[in-house]
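Table S5 (text form). Sequence records supplied for joint modeling of the two-component complex.
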Amino acid sequence: MLRVLLIFGALVAVIVGILGFRGHLGPGRPLMVFFDMDFQPKYQPQGQSAFFSDGRAQRTPPTGTVAFGGADFFGDAGAPTTNPDFLQADDVFYRGKEGETYVKRSPVSTDMPLLRTGRQQYGIYCAVCHGPSGRGNGILTEYGFVEIAKLTDPRVRSMPDGQIYHTIANGKGLMNGYGHQIPPAERWAVVAYVRALQWSQNASMDDVPTQFRAELEKGE
Amino acid sequence: MPSLLSEKTDRELRLQVGLAGVLFVALAIGVIWYYFTPKYARVGYRPEQPVPFSHEIHAGQLGLSCLYCHTHVDDSVFANVPATQTCMNCHAKIQANSPLLAEVRASYESGRPVRWKKIHQLPDYAYFNHAVHVQRGVSCISCHGKVNQMKVVFHAESLSMSWCLDCHRNPTPNLRPPSEVTNLDWQPPEGKTAAQVGLEIQERLLINPPETCQACHR
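The corresponding C-alpha cell record, covering 438 residues in total, follows.
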C-alpha cells in the first residue's frame, strides 16, 4: 500500500518537475494539439502574406491614389459618387490650405464635444512634448528633447489655423508628422483645443465668468 | 490446485492494483485538467521580441497613453501594433545611436516592418472586437494584465471561451468610466468599491454583454 502511494508521489513530482506550474513565464509557444479551424486562409490586420514579396498583407497605397477609409462603400465599389470625402478633394479640410495659402479659420465649427475630443487627443499625442498646458515642458524635455515649441507664444498664436493643422499632419523641424496617428477630423479638434489653451494662458480677469472669479483670485 | 497466493496476499494485491488504477485515472484527469487547458498552455507566454521594447519605460515611466501607439484600439476591431514611424517620433533624437534600436532604424530606412511576434491570438473562428469593450469601460488590464509594469509583455489571461463568458455573465466588477480605460493604475474613488462603480456604469450605459453563440462565432 505504501509502495503504491510512494510511486504515485514520485510520478506527480516528476510531472510537476518537468511541466512546472501554471503562469510560468517563458518563450515556449502555446502547445496546439488540434488545429481545428484556428488558422484559416484569410488575411488578418497587420498579418503576414506569402504572396507579396515584402511579406505584408496590408499594402501601402500606390502614389496618386487616395486611401479608402470607409467613407463611401458605394464609391469604392465603382458607383458614381458625389461624396467629396471620398476623393478627399476638399483641400481646406484635408490639407488646411486654399491653393497655396493656409486657411485662416478652421472649417469645423467649434463646440464642446469638439473641444473634448481635442483635449483627449492633445493629451495622448502632444502633451508628451508640448506639455499639458502648451508651455513646451512635456516629460520628454527630461530625456534630451530641447527646443520644443511653446504653443502659447505669440508666434504660434498668430499662425493661421491651417498652418497648425499642417504641422500636426506633416511635422516641422524636429517634430515628425502625426498624420498617420491622428485622422483629419481629430486634427481639427486638436487645433481648436490648442486655441483654447492659448486663450486661457493669455486671458484677463474680464474673460472669466463672474461666478468663478472669486475662486480664481483665492487660488492666486 | 492450491492457490498460489495466500488469501491475505491476494486481498492485499487486489487492493493495491485497485488503488493504483484509481490513482492513475485521477492523475490522468488531473494532468489534462491542469496542463491541457489554456490556463497552462497560454498564460505566461512571453516570446523574445526582435527589439527589447519595454512597456514599463514607455507606458509606466513616461506615462504615454496606450493610444499613442495602439492607435484606434478605441474605435476599431483591431489594436494596432505601432508602425516604425511611431517609434521614430522620439527615437530619431532620443537614444538615436543605441544598439538596442538598430532593428528599428534599419526598418525605418528599408521600409520593412519590424517583425514583432504576436502574443495574444484567438482562433480565426472566434470574433473579437476591441472597440465594443474599450468604449464601454472594460479596461485593458482586465484582459492583458498590468502591461504598464511589464518589461516584456506576456500572456496574462487564458482567453478561453469560458473566460470570455465569465465576464459576459457578470461584467460589473470589470467596468470603469470609459475615460479611465487606458489608465491602468485607476482606483475607484474613495468610499466606493469597484463593483459599486461598475454597477452605476452598467446602469447608465445599459451594458448587456451577449451570451449567444452567434455573437462570437459569426
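Note: The two ends of chain A are 83 Å apart (CA to CA).
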